[in-house]
User: Fold Large ribosomal subunit protein bL27 from Candidatus Cryosericum septentrionale.
Amino acid sequence: MAHKKAGGKSRNGRDSNPQYLGVKLYDGQAVRPGNIIVRQRGEHFKAGKGVMMGRDYTLFAVVDGTVKFESLKTVKRVHVLPIPELPVPEQAN
Assistant:
């Protein structure tokens, strides 16, 4: 009779899920209110104009506009510059 030994159990084979951190929208990209710009642990980037910070340090847009990254000496800041409203031409009657 053919015999096959029982397979041993493995203690390996586990891994944690990735955290999906980092910049999600880059400089010059268009954003809507609520769009996530940066996911981070700690305050690596600070919130600038048109941006708010969530409980887990996530930066998100609060206005329509374009993303602008600013790097000063020791501070990195993220802004959302609002899209300028174009004047509507008046119609001649």
About this structure: DSSP finds no helices and eight strands in the chain. The chain has a mean pLDDT of 92. The domain at 22-82 is CATH 2.40.50.100 (OB fold (Dihydrolipoamide Acetyltransferase, E2P)). Strands lie at 22-23, 30-31, 36-39, 46-47, 51-53, 59-61, 65-71, 76-82.
